[in-house]
Amino acid sequence: MSLVTQSEPDDDLVQALRRGDENAFVRLVSRYYPAMLRLAKLYVPSHAVAKEVVQETWLAVLQGICRFEGRSSLKTWMFRILVNIAKTRVQCAGRSVPLSSLAELDLDRDEPAVEPERFLPPDHELWPHHWLHAPQSWAVLPEEKLLSRETGMRIQQAIAALPPRQGDVIRLRDVEGWSAEEVCNTLELSETNQRVLLHRARSKVRASLEQYLAEK
């Protein structure tokens, strides 16, 4: 049995699932299980709970596939189910702040994407608000340095230190390779909020990496 490809049409797969085709379900799991587990781990406190969330999601998908209307992609529909189940798990565990509100908490803070001290002051005689310390160009750095395991670990640490919503967005966009539309639909963000969160996250990760490379 061959694994499903990313190009397999949703309609064909949905119809197969509705017929109870076990091979179709295996293909679906093969395609999405790793990404679903990674997404669940963004919300719940342990790997074990994340696996339970994914299992509940598969059950909900099978039970609800007949009600799938195709107004979004099959992937978006499934991942929205997963996020809702994960949120419910967190709320039942006693976390009183809804995860969906964290996006607004991140956005409400008066938080510059780049440190103000990297710019010239507004009353500068020649270049007000221009760069004082421009971002470092990495084009001159050896490729092996940028791609080293240690550099990758530094990036992971920088992402882990981000506020929750910023971390979610940059992981899905830049690590998982999701589109902006997929992130907005899955995390229930507006296009503007997604863009602001991603910009802030990338700026912080870049600043952390610049510091690390300068030390090296």
Description:
With 216 residues, this protein is mostly helical. It has 2 domains: 10-92, RNA polymerase sigma factor, region 2, helix turn helix motif (Rna Polymerase Sigma Factor, Chain: A); 99-215, Orthogonal Bundle (Arc Repressor Mutant, subunit A). Helix content is 62%, strand content 0%. It is built from 10 helices and no strands. The chain has helices at residues 10-18, 22-41, 47-64, 74-92, 102-108, 143-146, 149-160, 164-175, 180-187, 191-215. Helix 2 packs across helix 3 (47-64), helix 7 packs across helix 10 and helix 8 packs across helix 10 (191-215). It is elongated, with a radius of gyration of 21 Å.
CATH topology value of the largest domain: Arc Repressor Mutant, subunit A
Largest sheet: none
CATH superfamily of the largest domain: Winged helix-like DNA-binding domain superfamily/Winged helix DNA-binding domain
Helicity level, as a percent range?
A: 55-70%
Task: Tell me the overall shape.
Answer: elongated
Structural class, from helix and strand content? mainly alpha
